């Protein structure tokens, strides 16, 4: 069932699972365990927790979590997977597993915020330095790589300002310097592009794909989980060892939620994408909006890189998730922008994305970036996560809130 000529949805739905003898239900069983009983001492001594050859203790995996790990590998094109209790735990586990005192990590300036704040607070405690690089400027990354740099984080696009980097160029640059690359692949979700095959000919891959399964793989806004996927046994083992020593496990019920949602991920992702693009284009025409940041729209910084990496999916439509931001005219006050967010009825105010409910969140850009952002127009940023509601209802909602809160200037 790993035949990549077969569509991903089909492969996820028909992914191998052997039900108990005489009970041929296709849904995997939900196994829960701390203790796993060994038939005898010799069996206990012979079992190995570091690979999937046997079961030893709930923290090291159950048939349910092993099945989920294998399906996530199918989704992202990886070979090994470690499951953690959140997306942020995936980021922290990667950084802590790979970095030692005296070394340095580089993080894109538009990265998911807690990645950089974790580096500034926690990694610094261990004598690990970090620096931020401009994701739109490979030369900036090249200039910031030093002999101490052991890990470079990548994110495509940044999850608030949506700049899409030249991912293949950044990965090649790191490879040339022997630096490990870790991609936060939450936006792409294994659907918009293949993190382990960036050029389509199997010659260029990130080393690690970290994924907040909380978002599209869950799809319900009801579970927190993260994954760390690799294609290198030694790298996987490093991550798995730290994962074990930190005691990071996930519960069987949460794994079940993921297993139930995965078969529909491609359909949901496409639906989020279509509605988001429609609304992003519509918002481009509204007077209050000075810039729309959506990687599939030609005016968005990094659009050409999105086009190159994600543009061939869906018969040339490309694939682009359900997330975008707008910059509202700087002449509106923050109170007016807040009133616009409060005035929305279907869009709820909340963090995260990937669930059925559309979400809105105002962001204060000046507090989020350390490098200059000349590609972003001045104004007030609002991010939308598009859910699965009808496009027309969301558009009408945006229209009424714009009219009510942001009158013509
Ligand atoms: C949400 C998110 C995370 C963190 O995931 P949690 O499960 O909420 O901890 C990491 N990276 C990106 C890009 C995210 O959107």
From TrEMBL:
The keyword Lyase applies. It catalyses: L,L-cystathionine + H2O = L-homocysteine + pyruvate + NH4(+). One of its GO terms (molecular function) is cysteine-S-conjugate beta-lyase activity. Keywords: Lyase, Pyridoxal phosphate. Its cofactor is pyridoxal 5'-phosphate. Belongs to the trans-sulfuration enzymes family. This is Cystathionine beta-lyase. It comes from Giesbergeria anulus.
